[in-house]
Every structure is written in structure tokens, then in C-alpha cells.
Amino acid sequence: MADKSVVDITNLEHDATAIAKKVVLTDESGNPINDSNPLKVDTELTLDGITIDNINIQDISSGTQTNDVKITLDGESVLVTATDLDIRDLTSVSDSVSAVQSGTWNIGTVTTLPDIDINDISKGTQTNDVKITLDSEEVIIGGFNASIDPIRSDLEGVGDLTVETSEVEIVVSGTPTVSIRIRADTSNTGIIFIGKTGVLSDGTNDFIRLGAGDELIMPYDDSTNALFAISDTVSQTINIGALL
């Protein structure tokens, strides 16, 4: 037989001494490798210093991925098993998330603040101040800054009260009071001092001082401590009203 190490392939069909060989690649079970039985290759991918963004995994149906996937990052290998993957059709899925407040929540820019409805806070049950932080500034809502009482539906016009240089009690027949209004008469020539019992005509122990025409409106319950008025001048007048 002649040397066929170099063959003119154009004339092989007329060469009776030429030998053609066909190699068929099969899997471990002897099945040919083809489109319906692709070659399976075990691979390990190591990524170092690579930023991965926008990974799109397609054509993976539920239950068809039987082998684990191993990902190695910075020398650490992580096995992603079938139980770690929740592969579903999410094209028409809607869901909601509920959260329970714990610790400090930092809220960014709020363009529209909805109405805040605070219910079930009865008089006397809110003992702690409310703190609101806006733009890193803390605002304490308490005392005169907070009004958690319902709108009142009753009031009393006490009328005028003459104030001398000895303290006189401001008596409201309805009790308890929720808010008290005291206005010094515009014709007064002296100063009116308002306080609890023990207020003096020189202003000692006073809560507030009212000149002619001045008016005080404040939330106050007089059932525990009555209010008193005194002046540094005789025959002064105040006008009194109260919400009950």
C-alpha cells in the first residue's frame, strides 16, 4: 500500500487504497453527544476583582437544575443548592411587606406628609413627651405645645373681678376647668399678678404679670390648685372666662 500520509482529497473517491475513519463522541453511557445530549462539563469559576452587575439568568425552569452551582469569591466557595433558589414566573406577581418598628428609623426626604391621626389618647394618659426629629433638629412636643384633649362643648363666662393689694381667688363654678382666660381691664393703672395662693403684691411667687389690656389664655385644671390674682394698686379689674 502506498504512503497515504499526504492525500489529495479531491481524488479519494477514485482511490481504492484510501481508508476513511469516523470518530463518534459519546457520554459515559455510550450515548452519542449531540444537540439533544450535549456534552456536560464540570467547571469552577473564580472571580477576583470583578464587579458583576445586571446578571440575567434565563431558560431555567423549576426542577430542571439538578446540580449545585459553586461560586468562588475572594477564595471563598459558596454552594448554591436547589433549595436556595426560588425560581418562579414573576411577570404577574404582586406582594406586600409589613414592618414592625424597632429602634431608630432614619427617613430621607419626605415631599408630602400625610395627615397623622392620633387616637385613643385620653387626658392624663400621655405622660411622656413626644419627640420629632426634622432635618436633624429635635422638637419636643409637650406642655403647652401639645393639645390632646377633645374639642370642648361647654364654657363659663365668670365676668369681672375686682383685684386689690391682697390676693383674691379666681373662682369658676364649673369644674374642672380645661382652659382659663384672664384679661386685665384697659382702664387699669397697676399691674395684675397671677399665681397660686401665696402670690404677693410685689410680684413674689407670681406666674405671670398683666398690664392694662393684657390677656392670658392657658390650659389649666383648677381642681387641684386654684388661681389667685393680686395687684400693686387697689381697685383694679380683670375679666375671666373658662372652658370646661
Please give a structural write-up:
The chain has strands at residues 45-47, 69-73, 76-80, 130-134, 137-141, 155-163, 168-170, 179-184, 192-195, 208-210, 215-219, 227-231, 236-243. It has a domain at 155-243: Jelly Rolls, CATH 2.60.120. With 244 residues, it is mainly β.
Topology:
Elements: E1 45-47, E2 69-73, E3 76-80, E4 130-134, E5 137-141, E6 155-163, E7 168-170, E8 179-184, E9 192-195, E10 208-210, E11 215-219, E12 227-231, E13 236-243
Parallel strand pairs: 1-2
Antiparallel strand pairs: 2-3, 4-5, 6-13, 7-12, 8-11, 8-13, 9-10, 9-12
Short description:
By secondary structure, this protein is mainly β.
Number of strands: 13
Structural class per helix/strand content? mainly beta
What is the correct CATH architecture of the domain at 155-243?
Sandwich
The first-to-last residue Cα distance is 127 Å
Would you tell me the overall average pLDDT?
Answer: 74
Q: Can you tell me the CATH topology of the domain at 155-243? A: Jelly Rolls
CATH class division of the domain at 155-243 = Mainly Beta
Write down the overall geometry.
Answer: rod-shaped
Strand order of the largest sheet: 6-13-8-11
**Per DSSP, what share of the residues sits in E-state strands of 2 or more residues?**
25-35%
Number of DSSP helices?
0
> What is the share of helical residues?
under 10%
- Low-confidence runs: 3-7, 57-64, 120-125, 143-147
Report the sheet with the most strands, covering strand number, pairing sense and barrel closure. 4 strands, antiparallel
Order of helices and strands: EEEEEEEEEEEEE
Radius of gyration: 45 Å
